[in-house]
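Residues determine shape. Next comes a sample protein:
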Amino acid sequence: MYKILVVDDEAKIRELIKKYAIFEGHSVFEASNGMEAVSLCRCEEYDIIIMDVMMPELDGFSAVKEIRKAANTPVIMLSARGEEYDRIHGFELGIDDYVVKPFSPKELMMRIESIMKRAGGLSENVREVFKLEGLTVDFTAHLVYIDGEKAEMSPKEYDLLFYMIRNRNIALSREKLITDVWGYDFYGDDRTLDTHIKLLRKRLDGYSSHIVTIRGMGYRFEA
């Protein structure tokens, strides 16, 4: 199945995740702090990383930042705090999901499965490009350009933007966006969608106005 790296300074948390992951047929490797995680990722490749935020020596955010310099391994962040700032900071680093402690191990396994299905589900269609004024979206190359400059986005930000553009000028409910972009088995909440919309508008800069909020319903990409 999947090769999982579990990073947490609490041995009981690592053991709990390991127990459920092995039961699901996955291989589990452990690190007790951010420095150890970075070192392991320089020597080995993992399918997905479960990373705690608050750890000694090197916190989870800093560890992800270092790991991202060499690999784009999917990451689920674990934290005892659920503040919007932490969520935004994590998603800006390109993490795939954010789970607040205490959490359900079974739900965590479902989130892992959902992320891995998405990561392995890239299509191989003919080249597809969308242009709107100075905004260029290359679906095939998975790239976005703002007035000729390449925009840096997390995998989920790309997924959300691509989905909204493919369904442009259509009112998309919050439920539909979460179901179709995150997957039918997503167990997060509306704040995850709102955070990504906020980040996406920031990435689009002068073209952010094309993402329109539909009060009490959802969002629409106008083109």
